[in-house]
Amino acid sequence: DIQMTQSPSSLSASVGDRVTITCRASQSIRTYLNWYQQKPGQAPILLIYTASSLQSGVPSRFSGSGSGTDFTLTISSLQPEDFATYYCQQSYSPPPTFGQGTKLDIK
Amino acid sequence: QVQLQQWGAGLLKPSETLSLTCAVYGGSFSGYFWSWIRQPPGKGLEWIGEVNHRGSTKYNPSLKSRITISQDTSKNQLSLKLNFVTAADTAVYYCARGNVDTQGYYVGSDHWGQGTLVTVSS
């Protein structure tokens, strides 16, 4: 299985901050990298697919980049509703595997 | 608007069979991968397996010997059975719709069920 490693595991930030979360794959996954946001007690929400494509309905302050093994999710200006846990997921090679998550909370 | 509604038993004893069903409303079953994903309490996400509209399945190798995923296209439903459960199978189980790109690669799940907490305890 392809291993996905996110950093940091947790992050404290303030409303208005620019935040970047990174995800590294154990081997090349081309651009088959997806990002999800999950709030407590809720199902995950797809934010970004194929590394940089913004899912319909997701605010434009979310963006993704990368290819091969290294990827980033950037939130350009944090809003109160963005405090949540974020997961990356590779979908290049079955089984699709997730990173361990990055918990973003309020500083 | 696509909605996924799931149901099934929430409390099992060790060695019993977990059985969940997910109904898809407001959208086609065709052209998508339909997955089951689980999340142990306080932990991350684990992909269990998937079925496509043709009935072809893929399973997580770590669970393959115990799981069956099937579909009923006449009812727009998919189901999950997990045999011989243990406490390690305690988790919230989600069904989800996976999109497919033009090359047949799965490119993320854009609709999810509400989740079902399944607890395994004697």
Kindly describe this structure.
The complex is a heterodimer of chains A (107) and B (122). By secondary structure, chain A is mainly β. Chain A is built from no helices and eleven strands. In chain A, strands 2, 4, 5, 6, 9, 10 and 11 form a seven-stranded mixed beta sheet that branches. Chain A has a four-stranded antiparallel beta sheet with strand order 1-3-8-7, with no helix packed on it. With 122 residues, chain B is mainly beta. Chain B contains no helices and eleven strands. Chain B has strands at 3-8, 11-12, 18-25, 33-39, 46-52, 57-59, 67-72, 77-82, 91-100, 106-112, 116-120. Chain B is globular, with a radius of gyration of 14 Å. The chains are: A mainly beta (107), B mainly beta (122). At the A-B interface, strand 5 and strand 10 of A face strand 5, strand 9 and strand 10 of B.
Largest sheet properties of chain A: 7 strands, mixed
| Gap between N and C termini of chain A | 35 Å
Q: Decide which structural class fits the backbone of chain A.
A: mainly beta
> Low-confidence segments of chain A, ≥5 residues, pLDDT <50?
none
Largest sheet of chain B: 7 strands, mixed
Helix content of chain A: under 10%
